[in-house]
Write a structure and sequence with these properties.
Layout (H helix, E strand, L loop, with lengths): L1 E11 L15 E10 L5 E7 L8 H14 L2 H4 L8 H8 L11 H20 L3 H9 L8 E6 L9 H13 L5 E4 L8 H18 L7 E4 L6 H11 L6 E3 L7 H10 L4 E3 L6 H10 L8 E2 L8 H14 L14 H10 L4 E3 L16 E2 L2 E2 L13 H8 L3
Parallel strand pairs: 4-5, 4-10, 5-6, 6-7, 7-8, 8-9
Antiparallel strand pairs: 1-2, 2-3, 4-12, 11-12
Bound molecules: magnesium ion.
Magnesium ion binds next to loops.
């Protein structure tokens, strides 16, 4: 097994949207193409990109991780059975990196890790979800993944009627559960945000027949404990699907306090980028394995090699993989959800094109999506994204 080439580029994923913490007008993504030669001279090119919310990492890729991957020996990246070993490639990329302080190197490594898994499945001629089910899940794959439509961003001039129209479009696409931003647009004072958000939530709930289990809300880590508790008291009667990232993602003790005062599900984790950070959350965050939702995004957090460590850690702490619903809305996490039996996956029907979204020919039916039978992650079945990735040459 040899790495023949690694190409990288930077693509815009800018959108005229905002959550409670950032706007997305300057958002970028790294894209990579890794070409591998396997036994008998068989070649495959795997693609990777980082998911939304963190920026492209061309410097880290150029200076450290691509050179280390290209320098990896055949023995390092070949499994005992002769197949491509992404875990060996991961170890080669992480040579001379100290533990802790994960920063954004987890994004750079995650981009390459995605491409290596895409290549590994293509070399075997199987979809990634099938490869994962066979290697790590006793051959059991789900026949579809639960997905929900994430949107409800703050746009300049967007009113409650426009929000409800947006949610109606998601239901029309086949989604049963939707998510909206709360906590105020950037610059809006919290005392003004709460009454406005309750009007927005009630309008969407009306569309959903009053069923709170079909609506999640997302704060994007903006609140301190006082605001999180104030909102929690107002939200509790709605029995929402989940209350997402109410607090700073690394402030575990405040999560534990919130969880003592808010009974319905809490979701967080999209801004934790390592197994160690995830472990600190489950050790110290007071989250409840019978209801809360963990949203670690493999594309932002050192890739699937690390995500497998995270799943093993969760099992050791009594958490089922069904409590995991990754952030990001990309096909990589969708394959992982189906192949490893997660709880589902996020989806962004209207933003972050072309990186968000799934294969072109697979509709969402009653809030679930099936996987195409395409070797690798399935980028070749998503024309607009494939055109961007293929552009790497
Ligand atoms: Mg979120």
């Amino acid at each position: 097994m040899r790495i023949l080439s690694v190409k990288q580029g930077v693509a815009p994923i800018a959108s005229a949207i905002a959550n409670a913490y950032i706007d997305f007008s300057k958002m970028t993504a790294s894209i990579v193409a890794v070409t591998v030669e396997g036994p008998g001279g068989k070649r495959a090119t795997g693609y990777g990109f980082n998911s939304n919310g963190r920026y492209a990492q061309p410097g880290l890729l150029t200076e450290r991780f691509v050179p280390r991957l290209l320098a990896a020996t055949e023995a390092e990246i070949t499994a005992p059975d002769g197949s491509l070993d992404p875990a060996g490639a991961w170890a080669a990329m992480m040579k001379n990196e100290k533990p802790g302080g994960h920063g954004e190197r987890s994004v750079a490594v995650g981009v390459l890790d995605m491409a290596l898994w895409d290549a590994a499945a293509k070399l075997e001629g199987v979809p990634l979800w099938r490869l994962l089910a066979d290697r790590f899940n006793g051959g059991a794959a789900d026949d579809a993944a639960w997905v929900y439509a994430a949107g409800g961003y703050y746009y300049p001039g967007k009113d409650v009627a426009a929000l409800v129209e947006e949610m109606k479009r998601y239901l029309g696409l086949g989604y049963a559960t939707v998510k909206m931003k709360i906590g105020g647009a950037p610059g809006v004072a919290l005392k003004d945000a709460l009454p406005d958000d309750l009007r927005r939530i009630e309008a969407v709930l009306k569309l959903l027949g009053g069923d709170g289990s079909r609506l999640a809300v997302d704060v994007n880590g903006r609140f301190g404990l006082h605001a999180a508790l104030t909102y929690a008291a107002a939200l509790a009667p709605y029995r929402l699907r989940w209350y997402e990232e109410p607090l700073d993602p690394l402030d575990y003790a405040t999560h534990a306090t919130l969880a003592e005062h808010y009974g319905p599900p809490i979701a967080t984790g999209e801004n934790l980028f390592s197994m160690q950070d995830a472990r600190n959350l489950v050790r110290h965050g007071g989250l409840r394995p019978d209801r809360d939702v963990l949203q670690f995004d493999p594309a932002l957090s050192y890739g699937l090699v690390e995500y497998l460590r995270t799943l093993r850690m969760l099992a050791d702490h009594g958490w089922s993989p069904r409590r995991c619903v990754p952030h990001g809305g990309h096909q990589f996490a969708l394959n992982i959800a189906v192949g490893l039996g997660l709880g589902g996956n996020e989806s962004y029907p209207e933003v972050f094109a072309p990186f968000g979204g799934f294969a072109d020919a697979v509709p969402v039916v009653e809030g679930r999506v099936r996987m195409p039978d395409v070797p690798g992650i399935g980028f070749e079945a998503k024309a607009e994204l494939h055109a961007v990735l293929r552009g790497l040459g």
